[in-house]
Amino acid sequence: MERAKGILVITARWLFILCLPALLLTASIGFAVNNQWLYEYGFDKYNVGQATGLADSELEKAASGLIDYFNSNEDFIDITVTKDGQPFTLFNQKEMAHLKDVKGLILLDYWVLMGTGIYVVVYAAVSLFWLARECRRRLAVSIINGSGFTLGLMLLLGLLALLDFDRFFLQFHLISFTNDLWQLDPTKDYLIMLFPQGFWYDATLFCALLTVALTAILAGVAGSYLFITRRRTVF
Q: What gap in Å lies between CA 128 and CA 216, rounded to an integer?
């Protein structure tokens, strides 16, 4: 019985440690997807208005329309903007189909975020409020271990992106999609004109840095707790 209990405790702890990187990364991705400032930053940096012929107000409409779509129950996106005084549908059928696939990835991100978040919160709550004081120290150690895994993962992904982002970006698409709908024409498809590859490089760095920042906060809180409780024990 005690052995089974010990195995259960160790399994729960390691699951918590492994959930932390997934939780922090999916939280960062979810924040980026819903951050209109990031979209507009990319539009401005890469002169998207000039490439598309759309005014800033229409680009803002496109950004908010994409965010609304990713959080809606609609299968296909439908955004109408005005160009040269004439309204037109922003995305063609191929782009709409690809965005449906992208939305599926975003929903998967939300599900992973929710699942890991629930487990992490429940595990932390049990450790903090139900179990003995030593379990709180183990929780702090587990947070630091999970933070270490997260930083290692971000370092690996960061190196892959910095060394050869083109290949990193290509492999992501080959792994994530089962079709070639993502192979768009930058001369006529507005989706790729709105979001050139440079934007995705910046967005990747944004998610990685945000994940590192969240990790540093968690590790700092856990480390402070261990330091304070250790001093109390010593004195």
A: 20
Q: Distance between CA 12 and CA 20 in Å, rounded?
A: 13
Spatial separation of the C-alpha atoms in residues 86 and 24, rounded to whole Å: 43
Instruction: Give the domain ranges of the chain.
Output: 2-52+114-234
Q: What span, in angstroms and rounded, lies between the C-alpha atoms of 162 and 168?
A: 9
Helix-helix angle 197-234:2-33, to 10 degrees: 140
DSSP string, 41-106: HHHHHTTHHHHHT--HHHHHHHHHHHHHHHTSS-SS---EEEETTEEEESS-HHHHHHHHHHHHHH
Residue 191 CB-density burial (10 A; 0-12 exposed, 13-18 middle, 19+ buried): buried
Sign of the alpha-carbon torsion through 195, 104, 110, 11: negative
Q: What's the rounded Cα separation, in Å, for the pair 12 and 18?
A: 10
User: What tens digit of pLDDT does each residue of 99-153 get?
Assistant: 999 999 999 999 999 999 999 999 998 888 776 666 788 889 999 999 999 999 9
The pLDDT, as a whole number, for residue 235 is 39
Per-residue pLDDT at 232 exceeds 60? no
- Of 80-94, 121-135, 210-224, give the lowest mean pLDDT range: 121-135
Burial class (CB in 10 A: 0-12, 13-18, 19+), 228: exposed
Report whether pLDDT(65) > 50: yes
3-state secondary structure of 184: coil
Nearest C-alpha neighbor of 162 from the set 212, 113, 202: 202
* Gyration radius from the chain CA atoms: 22
